[in-house]
Amino acid sequence: MIEITNRAAAELKSLLATEGIEQPAIRIYITGSSTDVQYGLAVADDITEYDVTMENNGIKIVMSPEVAAGFSDGSIDFIADNTGKNFIIQNADTGTCDNCEECNICDAE
After folding, report:
1. pLDDT, tens digit (0-9, with 9 covering 90-100), for 26-65
2. CATH superfamily of this structure's domain 2-108
């Protein structure tokens, strides 16, 4: 399960409301290289029947099957400090992939 903290949920709902999006849904996607997998967030306006979806804290989370295969447990948080505002995406499974033939997470870039 992916937990969205109260801070992150409030910020996401505010951002999506500002954009006029009534049904909050975000997509988690892979960015970075296969040796340094990082995740990004985007508005999920292109949900397909193949996507993996879940909901937490009033926010629908959408991922491609390839991303979901390597991201089964984690969290999304939001911080605002003197360096700026950022969403922090943590994947409990990062770095534990040792069977690329089945996972294909590296090919999802």
Report:
1. 999 988 765 677 889 999 988 999 999 999 999 999 999 9
2. HesB-like domain (2.60.300.12)
